Amino acid sequence: MINQWFFSKQIVLGEEFLKVTGNRYEFVAQRPYTDAKGKLPNGVILTLRILEDTKDYGIDKKTGVRRLTNRGQNFDATILCDKTELPLEFGDIVALENFDAENSFAVNFDLFLRFKGVKKLSGTGAGGDSNHAQPSR
Fold first, then answer.
1. Which of 61, 72, 90, 123 is the most buried (most CB within 10 A)?
2. Which residues in the chain come in under a pLDDT of 50?
């Protein structure tokens, strides 16, 4: 069959990801997001650095060496919040909110993680109520 992709979807275990990483990430960068198909709200793609990873990924069968965790690795998360920029600065510590399993997916080794909110936990950026981004109502 040549069109098998049409009948499959790679699911993302987003809640498990948040659990093993402690849902605490260092903010690195952001850029606006617009859904090419126009089905999802606009938002912001955040590049985040993983600060913690408690999962044991086992031993590599070929080398016999323990696999490294994702600690220190960067990843992108799309915040579907109807905003094009969030009040975050490099180094801020954030938590992701409301994982959108329906619109998150994997292609090969790339994860497309969608969330409906992000919360600033600490850092150098502006404080107060502006540290919480969720969709406009």
1. 123
2. 126-131, 136-137
Closest to 92 in 3D by CA, of 33, 43, 49? 49
Q: Give, rounded to a whole angstrom, the gap between the first and last alpha carbons of the chain.
A: 44
Are 29 and 44 contacting, i.e. CB atoms less than 8 angstroms apart?
Answer: no
Distance of alpha carbon 20 from alpha carbon 78, whole angstroms? 19
- From residue 20, give the alpha-carbon distance in Å to each of 10, 32, 47: 20, 28, 18
Cβ atoms 59, 97 nearer than 8 A: no
Contact between 65 and 39 under an 8 Å Cβ cutoff? The reply is no
- Residues 115-131: tens digit of each pLDDT: 999 999 997 654 444 44
| pTM, full prediction | 0.83
